[in-house]
Design goal:
alpha+beta; disordered C terminus; two-stranded antiparallel sheet; three-stranded antiparallel sheet; nuclease; 46% helix; elongated; 401 residues; 13 strands
């Protein structure tokens, strides 16, 4: 181990930015192989420690819990590492290739389901030689990309019990939503093949329809925006099941003082699910939302509740849609049913809820306009978009944000 640490120290001292491109790529290849070899030894030792019940020496009940606590791994990463170690007990050829650096930990994870106990039993009943399978999967892993390896594994598993009952897709689905203290929601989950295909098809449709010129979002950001857009579309359609006798919607509570104060007002509002939002974010939501005034006493108890006021009523929204048709931010063109109606002068500060004071903006560009960008309609009816520094975004000569 000390020699390994010394080698890593020497690598850390290299001036990597001065290396020529060819040498850079060659050394990255060597490092990838070295990482595979380290991952192989890690899986082997994790398996040995599990068999020895070593985590009990640190007061932990399992290798997964030890890896999460001492190794600071996520539950998913810790579980996969343990499963890889178990699988390699039954796949000596794959284990040897892994130890040589020829395959990756991800590839081992793809093959691991093949040697679950029930599948080993089914293979034995059919006269399948596990050693032959081991050689085949190892050869594919060492020479093909991970997607092709996955297809080979799926092909085998699908034919292991061709006459058996189809698995219940709901048993293969799971989703958790974890909310951090700042309101950020982390999504973790998995879907069966059909459910995953449906979700990917829906997200891809939104991604491909929302590709404004000069879009600098990463693929991950595009997919996340698409998921939010799907939620927006469903909430706006009014076809979702009722939630506690009312139609599901985004509900935010804020005091009138914070709402009407132009300051950003961090953590001024509370959502129905307990997250905190800034007053600035609430003012953005309020552009095309409904407002219910509530009079409270000194102890915060409601005294009187006024009537719900829809800021942009349906007939005015239709008029804005007819005029603008799409998001008016330069280079966007997102369809009208993705858009919110933005007040050019916010109604909180005296702006009218009218056709002249409204503009269609998709969620992303509505956010931009509430954070320094500006849109304006000239006397000829053409929309112009300006950056926070006051320069105009001109499609063809300057890319849209």
């Amino acid at each position: 181990m000390s020699e390994l640490q010394s080698a890593l120290d020497a690598l850390a001292a290299d001036d990597v930015r001065s290396l020529p491109p060819r040498q850079q790529l060659d050394e990255i290849t060597e490092l990838l192989e070295a990482r595979n070899r380290i991952d192989a030894q890690l899986a082997r030792r994790v398996r040995a420690a599990e068999l020895q019940q070593a985590p009990e020496d640190d007061g932990m009940r399992s290798m997964q819990s030890w890896l999460r606590g001492r190794g600071r791994l996520s539950a998913a990463a810790a579980g996969q590492l343990v499963r890889n170690g178990r699988a390699l007990d039954h796949l000596p050829a794959l284990a040897a290739a892994f130890a040589e650096g020829a395959v990756t930990a991800e590839q081992v994870a793809v093959v691991a389901p093949v040697v679950k106990e029930d599948r080993r039993t089914a293979a034995l009943a059919l006269g399948v030689d596990l050693a032959d399978l081991d050689e085949v999967f190892t050869a594919v892993a060492a020479s093909r990309d991970i997607r092709q390896l996955g297809r080979v594994v799926q092909h085998y598993l699908a034919r292991l019990d061709p006459d058996g009952p189809e698995p219940d897709p709901t048993e293969e689905r799971g989703l958790t939503l974890s909310t951090f203290s700042d309101g950020t929601v982390v999504i973790r989950g998995q879907l069966d093949a059909v459910g995953g295909e449906k979700l990917q098809a829906a997200l891809e449709a939104v991604v491909q329809a929302d590709r404004p010129k000069g879009d600098l979002r990463t693929r991950a950001q595009q997919l996340a925006d698409a998921l939010v857009q799907l939620a927006d579309n469903q909430l706006a359609s009014g076809h979702l099941p009722f939630l506690r006798t009312v139609k599901p919607t985004v509900v935010v509570t804020i005091t009138s003082t914070d709402l009407f104060d132009p300051a950003p007002g961090p953590a001024s509002a509370t959502t129905a699910f307990g997250s905190l939002l800034s007053a600035a974010k609430v003012r953005q939501l309020a552009c095309d939302g409904s407002v219910v005034p509530v009079l409270v006493d000194g102890d915060g108890l409601p005294l009187d509740m006024g009537r719900t006021k829809r800021v942009y009523p349906p007939h005015l929204r239709r008029a804005v849609e007819l005029r603008d048709d799409t998001c008016v931010f330069a280079g966007c063109g997102a369809p009208k049913y993705w858009c919110e109606v933005h007040h050019l002068i916010h109604w909180l500060f005296g702006g009218e809820t009218s056709l002249e004071n409204g503009a269609l903006l998709c969620e992303r560009h509505h956010t931009n306009v509430h954070h320094g960008f500006r849109i304006e309609r000239d006397s000829q009816g053409r929309w112009h978009t300006y950056r926070p520094d006051g320069t105009e975004i001109l499609i063809g000569t300057a890319l849209a944000s």
